[in-house]
Amino acid sequence: MPKRQGENTSLGEVLKEFIQANRLQSGLDKVTVKDAWHSVMGEAISKYTSSVKLERDTLYVNLSSSVLREELSYGKTKIIDLLNDALGKELISKIVLR
Question: What pTM did the predictor assign?
Fold first, then answer.
């Protein structure tokens, strides 16, 4: 039901409607995932991260250290849980470390 002029609507509601109407959620998710990766994984791992890309439900992470890539591969499920927690929704189901 469309709002009539003069009715009070919060800014958050207006933004949600705009995002849904223009199908912007997937683009916003891609940006938020990058931020979540850097905040959850910390500065030490961020230094070795060259790119973070979300495609559908798979997160592709390019790392410049093969040793770090090997270490992180052992904890993929834990990393997925931490990232989804930080995002507040189940957005990632698989991680590919390159």
Answer: 0.78
Fold of 25-97: GMP Synthetase; Chain A, domain 3 (3.30.300)
Q: Tell me: the pLDDT tens digits for 1-16?
A: 555 565 777 888 877 7
SS (H, E, C) 26-65: HHHHHHHHHHHHHHHHHHHHHCCEEEEEEECCEEEEEECC
What tokens appear for 57 in the block? 């439900």
Q: Are 76 and 95 in contact (CB under 8 A)?
A: yes
- How large a percentage of the chain has pLDDT more than 90? 67
Give the up-direction half-sphere exposure of residue 34: CA atoms within 13 A in the CB hemisphere.
Answer: 12
Rounded Cα–Cα distance for residues 59 and 42 (Å): 17
